[in-house]
Structure formats: C-alpha cells, structure tokens
C-alpha cells in the first residue's frame, strides 16, 4: 500500500454561491447556445438517475489529487495502491462521501481498468458503502465492459492515481448548471474550468460535483487491461495505447463516467454538439489536499 502520510493541504477561495452563479452563467454562454445556472437545493442523490449512497454534495467540501500519471507512465508502479477509507482520514473527514476519477487496483481486480468511484467511507463502526463502477476492455469482443465494483469485490481500494471530491454527503445549496447546444470547442468540464480561470486569475479554487448528459453522445477512453510492456514516453505513444469509444446518455462525475447502457470511462467531450444537453450540480471546495505527490511531472 502506498504511503498516504505525504499530504499537503491548501485553503481554497470559496466565492459566494450567487456570485459563482453569475460568473458561470456568463462564462458558459461562450460555449453553449442555451445556459441556465441557478442556486438550488441539491436534489436527493439517492434517487434516480443518480442512485448515490448519500443524499447530497454538501458538508465540508474538499478535493484531493492522489498519486498521479507518473505512477502509470512511462512505466507503471503497481505498488501505488490506496484505500478510500484511509484517504478520507487524510482529508480530515472520516466517513466522507467520495466521488471522482481513478484507476482500479490491478492487484485486486487482476487487470488495468478505469474506476468511477462512488464511496461512502467507513466511520464510527459503520461499514463503507461502495457504489463504484469500473470499465475495462472486454476480451471477448474488444468493446467496453462496465461493471458494478461491489458485484465482484468488497474493498474500497484504487491504484496509481485519483482525482476526487469529498464531502459529508449532506443536502444543501448547490450550483445547478443546465447547458445545451454546444457552440464552442470546450467540453462542459473545460468550459467550467476556463471560466473560473478567467474570472479568478490570482485565486485557487475548485468545483466538485456530478453531471448528466441528458441527451447526446460523448467520447471516452478506456485503458487496456494489460499495462504497456514498453515505456510510454510521448503523448502519441499514450494515445495509441488507449482505446476510445463513443457512448450514449452518460452520467459523468468529474472526468470519469458511467452509464445505463454499459459504457463508461474517461470523459473527453460530447460528440453531438447540436443536440447535447447537460445537467450538473456543483459545490466550491474549501480545501485541496495533495496526497503522495510524484516527484516527476506527469501528463494530463
């Protein structure tokens, strides 16, 4: 198991929600024909279409960057394995609800695969609830195979890297984003990030949350089941190793997604800009935690 005691913490700028609403409304209009950003009560996420193990995205919101791409390329470091329950303690939030993007533990799963974490971590004798999904390349037909993690495994581990949002999972006020008919060249995630960069150039801030593609298709990638036997030293080599798919009606957390129709993985952008419809709920994080930072600088 990787050493998670190597943790750095930074306080983030947290704008007033109404201020943030206005900023995102204006910024997203540069990338979508129809935009409506509101401050609302978080919907009950235990219900359809989310089916999360908690009701909301509020309560001590924080983000963390665990491990990193240098543990995957140019040469994989399989010993870099992490436990969500231990991560929640490093985030000073034992029992946290954690969602985001990561990779499975190849030691446990027996292969390389994309992980879509949805974990209510253990606390005060309460066992963890792991509602995560993972996606791999089906060896039978070479297509995407999406599976519920708890149907095969009982742990809360992940490997190599994780970009995660954590909170108490409580109801509360959130930013609701409705956007459709993409007119720019940015994904919904990139459009949100670029808007914040422009508005707050000298501040550090982050949004965590979840969004749904209510209509349209998206480009995703899935890492092969086997790690590359050769060092991946360039973006071209990485891209040739990855396998790309296009899916329908995806529900996306951060940059990883899962769906009702059995496809999931790393989200890039929608591929149907004329018809795409997004619905998302976001919260500004109060703190950023960098856990087990690699010495080398990695790729996105």
Describe the global form.
globular
How many β-strands, per DSSP?
A: 20
Helix/strand order, N-terminal first = EHEEEHEHEEEEEEEHEEHEEEEEE
- Percent strand equals 35-45%
Could you list the spans in which at least 5 consecutive residues all have pLDDT below 50?
Answer: 228-234, 238-254
Radius of gyration: 18 Å
Helix tally equals: 5
Share of residues in helices: 10-25%
Mean pLDDT, as a whole number?
A: 86
Structural class: mainly beta
Oligomer kind = single chain
Gist of the model:
By secondary structure, the chain is mainly beta.
Walk me through this protein's architecture.
- With 300 residues, the chain is mainly beta.
- It has one domain.
- Helices cover 14% and strands 39% of the residues.
- Strands 1, 3, 4, 5, 6, 7, 8, 9, 10, 11 and 20 form an 11-stranded mixed beta sheet that branches. Strands 2-12-19-13-16-17-18-14-15 form a 9-stranded antiparallel beta sheet, with helices on both faces.
- α1 (17-28) packs across α4.
- It starts with 6 loop residues before the first strand and ends in a 9-residue tail after the last strand.
Note the topology.
Blueprint lengths: L6 E5 L5 H12 L3 E10 L20 E6 L13 E3 H7 L6 E7 L2 H4 L4 E3 L1 E3 L8 E2 L2 E5 L6 E5 L8 E11 L5 E10 L5 H12 L7 E9 L1 E6 L12 H7 L1 E6 L2 E3 L2 E3 L6 E6 L6 E8 L2 E5 L9
Parallel strand pairs: 3-20
Antiparallel strand pairs: 1-20, 2-12, 3-11, 4-11, 5-6, 5-7, 5-11, 6-9, 7-8, 9-10, 12-19, 13-16, 13-19, 14-15, 14-18, 16-17, 17-18
Helix pairs in contact: 1-4
């Amino acid at each position: 198991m990787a050493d998670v005691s190597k943790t750095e913490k930074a306080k983030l700028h947290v704008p007033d929600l109404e201020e943030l609403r206005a900023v995102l409304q204006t910024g997203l209009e540069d990338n979508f024909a129809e935009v409506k950003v509101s401050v609302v009560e978080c919907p009950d996420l235990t219900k359809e279409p989310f089916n999360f193990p908690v009701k909301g995205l509020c309560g001590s919101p924080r983000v963390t960057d665990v491990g990193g791409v240098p543990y995957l390329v140019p040469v994989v470091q399989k010993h870099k394995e992490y436990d969500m329950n231990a991560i929640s303690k490093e985030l000073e939030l034992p029992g946290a609800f954690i969602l985001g993007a990561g990779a499975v533990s190849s030691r446990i799963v027996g292969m390389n695969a994309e992980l879509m974490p949805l974990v209510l971590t253990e606390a005060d004798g309460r066992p963890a609830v792991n509602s995560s999904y993972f996606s791999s390349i089906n060896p039978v037909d070479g297509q995407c195979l999406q599976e519920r993690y708890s149907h095969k495994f009982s742990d809360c581990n992940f490997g190599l890297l994780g970009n995660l949002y954590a909170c108490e999972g409580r109801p509360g006020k959130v930013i609701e984003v409705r956007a459709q008919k993409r007119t720019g060249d940015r994904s919904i995630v990139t459009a949100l990030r670029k808007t914040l960069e422009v508005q707050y150039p000298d501040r550090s801030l982050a949004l965590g949350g979840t969004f749904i593609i209510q209509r349209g298709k998206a480009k995703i990638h899935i890492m092969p089941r086997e790690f590359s036997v050769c060092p991946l030293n360039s973006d071209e080599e990485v891209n040739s190793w990855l396998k790309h798919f296009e899916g329908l009606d995806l529900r996306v957390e951060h940059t990883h997604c899962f769906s009702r129709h059995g496809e999931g993985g790393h989200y890039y952008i929608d591929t149907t800009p004329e018809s795409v419809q997004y619905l998302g709920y976001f919260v500004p994080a109060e703190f950023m935690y960098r856990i087990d930072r690699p010495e080398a600088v990695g790729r996105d």
